[in-house]
Amino acid sequence: MNPNLNLLQPYPFQRLRDLFKGITPNPAFTPINLSIGEPKHATPQLIKNALVNNLSGLANYPTTIGSIELRTAISHWISRRYSIPALSAETEILPVNGSREALFALAQAIIDQTQPNPVVISPNPFYQIYEGAAFLAGATPYFLNTLPHQDPKLNHVMDFSSVPVDLLKRTQLVYVCSPGNPSGKVMSLAQWKTIFDLSDLYNFVIAADECYSEIYFDEANPPLGALQAAHLLGRDYKNLIVFSSLSKRSNVPGMRSGFVAGDEKIIEAFTLYRTYHGCAMNPAVQAASVAAWDDEAHVIENRILYAQKFNDITPLLTDILEVKVPDAAFYLWAKIKDGEISDTEFAIQLYRDLNITVLPGSFLAREAHGVNPGKNFIRMALVASYDECIEAAHRMRDHF
Question: To pair with 98 at 20 to 30 A between CA atoms, which of 77, 147, 315, 397?
Fold first, then answer.
C-alpha cells in the first residue's frame, strides 16, 4: 500500500461519531443536524427535467473534456457573474465531478516529487481534502492559521507575511478558499494581489476553491472571485486554477457537477491526468448542468432562503455565542463565550441535552504554530429548513 495513506487523519465527521459514541441524545427533542454542509433546499425542477430528458445519454461514453455545450455554458456564466471577458471553452475550462474530487486530483497532477521536500500551503481551519491531497501527492502541508484579528482586513484570512522564505521556495501549490469554510470570509483585491505576487515570485500554483461563491447576502455585492481579481489587476491566469460547483449554488450535491477554469497550460495537463484517471461526467448530468448554469432565478431564490435564516437566527444566539452574519457561505462560525468549556464539550452538551448536532471547530483545524485556530469555535451549517434552524436557536438560547 502507498505509505502516505498512513498520514491521512480521520475525517471530521468520523471524529464526531467517535465523540458522541455511547451518548444518548435527549429524546424529548427531535434531532436537528447542523454539522454537515449538505444543502437541503429543494432541487430546482428545471434541473430535474433536464436530467430526465437526457437519460438517453447513458448509452454513450462521455469524454473527459465534456460537451462543448457545457463548457460554453460555464464560460458564459463566468463572464456574466464576474464581469470579465469570456474564457475559452476549448482551452480554459474543464468540467469536473464536483469540486471535491478535482481539488484532490489537482495536487496529484501538480506536485513535482523530483524536487526536494515539496510544500502545499493551506488555510487553517481548512477543508480536509487539501491536507489529504498534499500527503498523497508526496508533499508536506503547511498551515496558515486564520484567526480573529484586530484589523478587519486580516480577520480570518491567510497572512503570508510570517511564512519563511525557504519554505516559499519549496511551495508548489497554495489552496485558497474564498468565501471561506468555515469562516465565510471573502478575500479582498489587495489580498489576492499579495498571493498573485508571491506566485509570480516563487512560481507556485494557486488552487482557488470557490464552491460557496453563490451563497451571499448582499445582491449588490457578490463575492470577489479569483479570475475577477486577476482581471481587475490586469493579469492573465498564469498559475491560477479556480474550482466551482453546482452543489451549493443549485442544491444538487448528489449530481457531482462543477468545473475548473484558468491557466490553459495547467488545464491541458490536468485534462491528460483526468483522461487516465477516468473522471468523465455522466452525459445526463452534463445536460442538467447546462440548465443549471444558464439559470439565475433559482440561485437568487436560494440566497433569499439563506439570508432569512441568518438574519433571524444570529440575533437569537448572541447572548451565548460570539457570532455574526458572515460575508458569505452557509456556516455560522461561532466562538464559545464561556472560556471554561471546550468546543468538544459544548458539542456534546448540545447533542446530549438538546439533540442538536454541530461540528467542533477544532475538528476542522490542525495544531500549528502553537495553536489550534478552531479551538473554542463551533461550526453550524444552516442548511436545514428555516423552522428547524429557528428551533435549534431557541433551544440553545433557552438552555444556556
Answer: 147
| Per-residue confidence (pLDDT) for residue 156, from 0 to 100 | 75
Q: How far apart (Å, rounded) are the C-alpha atoms in residues 364 and 241?
A: 24
Of 231, 260, 295, the residue at which a domain comes to its end is 295
CA dist 369 and 134 (Å) reads 19
* Averaged pLDDT of the chain: 96
Integer Cα distance of 388 and 34 in angstroms: 10
Per-residue pLDDT of 218-247, as tens digits, reads 999 999 999 999 999 999 999 999 999 999
98 phi-psi bin (left φ>0, alpha ψ -120 to 50, beta other): left
Q: How many domains does the chain have?
A: 2
Q: How far apart are CA 385 and CA 42, in angstroms?
A: 10
120 part of a folded domain:
yes
* String of DSSP letters for 310-334: HHHHHHHHTTTEE----SBSSEEEE
Q: Is 93 helix (H, G, I), strand (E, B) or coil?
A: strand
CA dist 52 and 94 (Å) reads 23
**Set of cell numbers at residue 181:** 469554510
Q: Please return the burial class of 150, using the count of CB atoms within 10 Å of its CB with bins 0-12, 13-18 and 19+.
A: exposed
| Nine-digit cell string for 103 | 481539488
The cell for 114 is 523530483
Does the pTM of the predicted model rise above 0.85? yes
pLDDT, position 365? 97
Q: Does 261 lie in the same domain as 113?
A: yes
Residues 276 and 321 in one domain: no
Alpha-carbon distance of 341 to 376, in angstroms, equals 8
Band of residue 157 on the pLDDT scale cut at 50, 70, 90: confident
What digits encode the pLDDT tens for the residues 317-338? 999 999 999 999 999 999 998 7
Q: How far apart are CA 199 and CA 327, in angstroms?
A: 26
Cell of 127: 477543508
